[in-house]
Pyridoxine/pyridoxamine 5'-phosphate oxidase
Amino acid sequence: MKLSDLRREYCQGELSEQDVAAHPMTQFDTWLKQAIDANLPDPTAMVVATVDEEGQPSQRIVLLKDSNEDGFVFFTNLGSRKAQELKHNKKISLHFPWHALERQVIVYGEVEPLSTKKNMAYFISRPKESQLAAWASKQSHPISSRTMLMETFERMKHKFSQGEMPTPDFWGGFRVKPNKVEFWQGGEFRLHDRIMYSRNNLDNTTWDKQRLAP
């Protein structure tokens, strides 16, 4: 079968300007809860897109760790490619692909680093193996083999075998402060529903909504 022949209709629901919440984060929380209740695999998984100094975009999947009216939170190695790119360009885009519900959410905004206190609070809440992995991996940097990575992991395991593990100074979180958020609901005949929230530039606290053509 040719790839061009693979298609299906989207007919699970509709989305109107009247039905969505006044604030995009309220609408996001509703959709996220529905994705969790639907037992979707990895409902908090999101594609994180950043841009390097030469204008080359890059993407990767990261897990959302918090969301509220202030934005979206994720954590990473601060030496990683995404963290280094965000150091030079704070602009970022997130994408939540909830295929089973025929929904997407796309976020446009800028990041701000989390405080040391917030980084520590989340780090100590992680399983010990995840804490050790953060210490063992120089994320995005070349390594000679997986064997070397596992050897480093075992060394960290021995080093921190007693007591609480400290938070690495090369590890931390970012909050994505959105200025635009798009909600996409699949529709019949490819006539999808798209509602875009844009932050009102006059007061920077309220949001305007508009429908986009599919």
Observations:
- Helices lie at 24-37, 81-88, 116-123, 128-136, 146-159.
